[in-house]
Amino acid sequence: MKTYSIATIPGDGIGKEVVPAGQQVLEALAKTSSTFRFEFENFDWGGDYYRQHGVMMPADGLDAIRNKDAILFGSAGDPHIPDHITLWGLRLKICQGFDQYANVRPTRILSGIDAPLKRCKPEDLNWVIVRENSEGEYSGVGGRVHQGHPIEAATDVSMMTRAGVERIMRFAFKLAQSRPRKLLTVITKSNAQRHAMVMWDEIALQISKEFPDVTWDKELVDASTARMINKPQTLDTIVATNLHADILSDLAAALAGSLGIAPTGNIDPEHRYPSMFEPIHGSAFDIMGKGLANPVGTFWSVVMLLEHLGEFDAAKQVMSAIEQVTANPKLHTGDLGGKATTVQVTQAVCELLTAGAQRKAA
Ligand code: NAD
Ligand code: MN
After folding, report:
1. Model's pTM, two decimal places?
2. Is it the case that residue 361 has pLDDT exceeding 80?
3. Domain Isopropylmalate dehydrogenase-like spans what residues (predicted)?
């Protein structure tokens, strides 16, 4: 029996509600498996930890999770702490510390979800957005001087490296190649940004030669928002910079029905470090502590976690349970226009996993 050790980091707000729900789903799944089990260790890092210790996570925190097989993360963001402190002090510390350079965000319209685009059939929207997750606009290079004086100046330098762009392009082409349509769109802004984005385009062309069976095109980021809405079926795999993909993936999540459903993986494709899986939503201050959070984004992140561990059958089982639940409007949470609670949705998914295993055994 294989044992996977998983770090859970709920963080703040509804992260504290959806991560335990995700753990329950993994536990229900493990009960049905004769080949693997999970060992969880929970870390109470986040806003409350900051109030006690002045930091979001301990200085040697990365060492505590370095040898885990994967990390399940909730959200970093507290109403009483500036967002740049919570983000850089926890989530980005882990992403950068473990060089999780590929952020992968699948988007589909799940069964039973009423998506906002009326002309878009569910099968028209089946995307994976690959976000460069280690440099670019969010590299952290920059500074601020003469604070409070009229001559105050501030910069956030977008830094791109050949190594960084080559590795994310190679990852995106490989991912596109693994999908049925073998179709990649490279998002750019090389008309206005004439240095780094021109290099980005050149490297895309260079890496494309390694993948002759992948069809690819280039789209300016602003035009791509219109294309996502008007011609969703022309897109499949999408690769973009840290900032561009951050924005496009929230748009994608909304087009698929709700921010509460969308998952993401912060992946180290070389498996040198643990990868981290999380719903793309934040702490949702308006509903936190009320048991109303949609846990589906976390469950779909659990599916990605299982795929990353190589447990593809288990991943399929969980995804199928999720889609059976979304297909039932009685099990929709408030973000989807329903009345279901986090606990009800979680129980429904767990029961389907158990029932599925019993059916198989019978
Ligand atoms: P948000 O995702 O927290 O909330 C946006 C809206 O969507 C809210 O109305 C919220 O109620 C709703 N929503 C989000 N997830 C939901 C779910 N699972 N179920 C039901 N409704 C859901 O975004 P925001 O308001 O911009 O940010 C709040 C805080 O979260 C900020 O501090 C921000 O920095 C942080 N944040 C963190 C992450 C992260 O850690 N990955 C991501 C985004 C935002
Ligand atoms: Mn974002």
Report:
1. 0.95
2. no
3. 5-349
